[in-house]
Amino acid sequence: MSKKVILFIVEGITEEISFALILNKLSTQKNLMGEIINFNIVNGDVTSNNSKKFQQNIKAEIGKIIKSYLIKNHINKNDIKLIVHLTDMDGAYINAENVISDSNNCNIHYDEKNIYTANPQKIIERNSFKSSNLNELSRTSKIMGIDYKIYYFSCNLEHVLHGIQNADESNKSKLANEFENKYKDDLKGFVEFFKSIAEDCEHDYDNTWNFIKENCNSLKRHCNFYLYVIPLL
Predict the structure, then answer these.
(1) What are the pLDDT digits (tens) for 128-139?
(2) Of 20, 62, 79, 203, whose CB neighbour count within 10 A is largest?
(3) Per-domain residue ranges of the chain
(4) Facing residues of 4 across strands?
(5) DSSP state letter for 155
């Protein structure tokens, strides 16, 4: 394959809608003509899946996702320059006492201090599993010998991009299309948006992960994806 792939591992279609066109335009503008950005949608959050299938080393599970992508696209791992993994924080690092029982709420509800749920123990267990996996992945620089970085959206993608912490599933694609339409012809504005998000927690990569683990920061509106975006302009 003539071009090197930057492979984005994402939870759903909304990340691809929001970013794929804009990031490829930024790469072209930067004259990174030997690179192409591809998105691999895994339809869920691999870091919080605690089924028996995922009760293994999280890096091995990411490796399986990469291998599946290589087979499906008939390329080898040397064709991939970088793995970029995007994840929602979902309040993974909050204390157990900030998970509040709410029998009137059949869906999980977030604010910037607490998670409200009809099944607190399930969320506490999810957070323990997810935070352990995130700790491992945030310390990981290579998977299968390929450079790897994981970036977070807190408390989730819609919270960062739209200021909506509890977006309806039915509305997420609409929001993603609005974001793409807003910035697809305003690449500078796209980068400036991420600069503005960075102001509260502007650090190097390792310190952004230390920051998000503190207090209730994993429920608040923070993101370290600016570390990838800003150098593109």
Answers:
(1) 999 999 999 999
(2) 62
(3) 4-91+121-232
(4) 35
(5) S
